[in-house]
Amino acid sequence: MTVRNRGALAAMAAGVAALTVAGVVACGSQPAENVGSDEAAALAGTTPSAAPTTTAAGGASVPVSAGTLPADGKTVPPVKLAIPPIGVVASVNPVGVNRRTGEFEVPPSVDQVGWYRYGPGLETTGGSVVIAGHVDSAEQGKGAFFRLRELDQGDTLTVTGADGRQRGYRVVAREEYTKTKIPLDRYFARDGEPRLTLITCGGPFDPKTRHYRDNIVVTAVPA
């Protein structure tokens, strides 16, 4: 999912779609029309301090080696994601940004997903907890988020934290964006209502660039 010049989600989207999926023409069937866009926008705050930004020179201004995690050690990382409606049970790994490519460093195993560790953890009372995953891979086949586009409003999922506690979420929105137009500030914000953001790639696959054109974004709120 290359959204490279727009920062870490560029990253995320990038790492998620920067897959060598030659021979795949599209990410499965196209998703249904966007749902819940107004709800997703209403959840967002106005201070995107967790969002990767872009410098005037076009380079990504994002944390790479060192994260800005709370000093009190109260951040609760997600370690497991279960989405029954689409048959997903996946391990969640903390990830950052690849120093060389500037892309969100999604786990190389397509059956695992990555939590953006420079944003909020599961204990947050505000902001977006971001998890990204591969849609597929030429070598490994279907990824954990291959069917993410099938989620709809009202579907439920569970995220287990490092503290052993399971937290339930309800889907309120599913949207598809051309990667260059995805509103990163909304999905990486540290403020606004607490929410979970799931991202993968989608839309047509370009065999020349070896990237998908779009990003699929699912927003869920605590159930």
UniProtKB/TrEMBL annotation:
The keyword DNA damage belongs to this UniProt entry's keyword annotation: no
Q: Which domain of life is it from?
A: Bacteria
Q: Which UniProt keywords apply?
A: Hydrolase, Signal
For the keyword Hydrolase, the answer is: yes
Pfam families xrefs: Sortase
Query: Could you list the residue ranges that cross the membrane?
Result: none
Signal peptide range in chain numbering: 1-22
Q: Which CDD domains match?
A: Sortase_F
Name it.
Class F sortase
Q: Which organism is it from?
A: Micromonospora mangrovi
